[in-house]
Amino acid sequence: MSQDVTATLARFAAGLAYEAIPARVRERTKDLLLDALACALAGYRGEDTAKVMRFARALGRSDEASIFGGARLSLTGATLFNGFLITAVSMCDVYRPTATHFQPVIVSPALAIAECDAASGRDLLIALVAGFETAARVAAGVDYAAFRQRGWHGPGTIGPFGAAAAVGRLRAFDAGTMATAFGLAGSQAAGTFAAWGTPSVKFHQFRGALSGLMAALLAEEEFTATREFLTAPDGGFYPTYCGGAPRAAATAALGEHWELESIALDANTNFRRITPWAALLALAFRSRA
User: Nearest-5° angle of CA 116, CA 120, CA 121?
Assistant: First the structure.
C-alpha cells in the first residue's frame, strides 16, 4: 500500500479517464445514480422533508440549481435538499463494511455542479465513479471495530471525501488541488452514533454533501490545507478516527479492483415502494443514460 494514501487517491480521482472505467463499472454507477433518483422522488413522502426545504431556502435566495421534482434553489440549498431527499425515507445505498450511505453525499453535489457548469453526461459519469470509488476506498481502509467503538458514523465522516472527489473531477482538478480538497473535506468530517434514532443521522448525510462541495470549491480558490489528511500522525483521519494506519484495501489494486461494486442497493425494492409516477420517471431517465 502506498504510504501516502491521500496523494494516491487524489491522483486517481484527478486522473480518471472514461476509457479506464470498465463497462460493468460504468453500468453500476448508472444504477447508483438511477437508484438515487428513485429514492429522492420517494423522499417527498418523508416526515421531515418540508422542514429541510425551509432550511435549504433560508440559506440563499438564488435559484441556479435544480432539485428533484422540478423546483430550483441556490447551489447550497439544492445540494442540501437533494441530499436529504435521497435519504429521507431510508431507501438509499449502503456500503456494508462501514454501514455508510454514499448516494446522498456524492450524487447531490455532483449533479449541482454538473448542471451549473453544463457538464456532459460522460463527465458526470466519470465524476460519480471518482466520487464513489474514492469514498469506498477511504471506507475500505477503515478498521471498523475501532471506528465504531469511538462512536463515528460513516456518512458524515467518510462521505465528504467522495463528494469532494466528484466535484473536483468535474472541475478538472489536478492531483495537488484534489489532495487539498481532501484536506478540507477531512477538516469537516463529523457525525457520531449519538444521533442514532433521530432525524439527525440524515443530517450527517446532507451536511456531508455540502462539506464536500465546500471543500472542492475552496480548494479551487487555492486555499491552503494539508495534502496528507488521511494519514497525518497528529489528527489525520485514520490515526484519529480508527486509532492507527489504514488497511491495505484503501489503495490496493486501485484502478483494477473497483470497490464501488460493493456498494449495495435494492432497486427493485425501491421501485415497489415509490409511487408509480416516480418509478416511470426513473425508468425513463435510465433509458436515456
Answer: 110
- Domains in the chain (CATH in brackets) are 5-288 (1.10.4100.10)
CA dist 142 and 243 (Å) reads: 10
Tell the residue number behind the cell numbers 435510465, with chain if given. 286
Q: What's the pLDDT at 266?
A: 62
Q: Which of 186, 134, 127 is nearest to 156 (CA)?
A: 186
Is the pLDDT at 132 greater than 60, yes or no? yes
Closest C-alpha to 2, from 230, 252, 273:
252
DSSP 230: T
3-state SS of the chain: helix, strand, coil percent to 5?
65, 5, 30
Nearest C-alpha neighbor of 101 from the set 12, 195, 186, 36: 36
- What is the pTM assigned to this prediction? 0.92
φ/ψ of residue 86, rounded to 5: -65, -30
> Cα 188 to chain center, whole Å?
14
Non-local CB neighbours of 90 within 8 Å, separated by 6+ positions: none
Comparing C-alpha atoms, which of 99, 118, 105 is closest to residue 208? 105
How high is the mean pLDDT of the chain?
Answer: 92
For residue 204, give every residue at least 6 positions away whose Cβ sits within 8 Å of its Cβ, in sequence order, or none: 153, 155, 156, 190, 191, 195
